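Need tokens for this chain, all 419 residues.
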Amino acid sequence: NEWAVNIGIQTSDCFQLTTSSMKSSSSSGGGGKLEEEDVYAITNQDLSQGSPILHIPHEAILTSTKSRAELSNNDATYSAEQTLLATTSYNRLPQFYLFLKILKEYELGMDSLWYTWLNSLPRYYSNGASMTDFCYGCLPPFAAGLALEEKQQLKNFVVALQEVGNFLSLEGRGDEELTRWAFAVVHTRYMTMPNGDHCIVPMADFFNHGGTETDVDISYDDEGNCYAYSTNDIRHPNQPLRICYGDPTNPSYLLARYGFLDESSPATFCKIIVDNPSEELVMLGYDHSRMLFYKDGGISQEVWDVLLYQELGKQVSGSSSGHPDDEQQQQQQQEFYQAHVTGNEGLKQSYHETYFPQTLHVLRQHVDYLVNELDELGLGLEIQMDQGKDGIERHPRLPLLLRHNEFVRDTLENVQKNL
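Here are the structure tokens for all 419 residues:
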């Protein structure tokens, strides 16, 4: 807290940082023999709703806008930016400038204004960019795809990093462990400000994820100063202070981006993948945050609507026969869609009742396939777990991946029972 005071950060008496042990590993992700401390924020006393917790001045906050203004004053940095824009990371330019800022401050060492804060951050991460090929093979396709996307983003950042010239040392640009760490720091700690800027807020970044249950609201004033207040009465001291990192109904995304499993998630994406969904499907609810299987076995209405729309379109997709049955099927698909758009629930329900056997059959097949897929993955994971300490030391993320798969499988089994 001495560093926080010196940099102008104000903390209320209730705010306290505490630690818990977490497994660490070598830079390659193997040999998990070390223990390091995970630092997070708690309240050490009761709090009333609206109580101030933190105030962080804008000078202490790292933002992509300030980083870009500081770092993009040479042709080499411009070349790095253009390199990144030519990749699938074109929409992560703000994160890239935070990535450069973290690397630059790291190289400054004790001369960095943020040295004490940087030195308190974890060295070991389980997010997608930090996983190994073995990890990806342990995950079902949807989760593996999200994790591999993070790894690809890291690769794009590293390629662009080679263009920054003498802004960073050659050794720093070529340090695989360092660049992976800096990428993880940015992507597990940045927040989006109301003005669209991306920032990392020291001290506020120690709030844990709370999913659907949060205790803290973070806001900013016009000058970019940050404030944290309690959102409800807290009557259980020494509990983590929590914010929401992202969609609580997508635990696979949280695993890929942040490297933890949110077992409090009430639901998970149903894993019905549609590449480039049409405007009609989006209007019907095709979105990972809405196409849900609930932990109690419930199924969101959007799943049924999307499946029925697809089922009605199967017989006319690609058809050029002009057969009356095809025209009728196409008309029914459009009628169902219009009933949804106009709020004609009676007509929608009529279509669902008529085609329920077909949509039920498709959904059963989908869920059965996902469960069988997880069963096959589970066999391989069990073999590794049976090796005991040796298996876990070679693959320290194995228990986390196993818990993720079990969470998804338990949800799917409950859905199976309801079908």
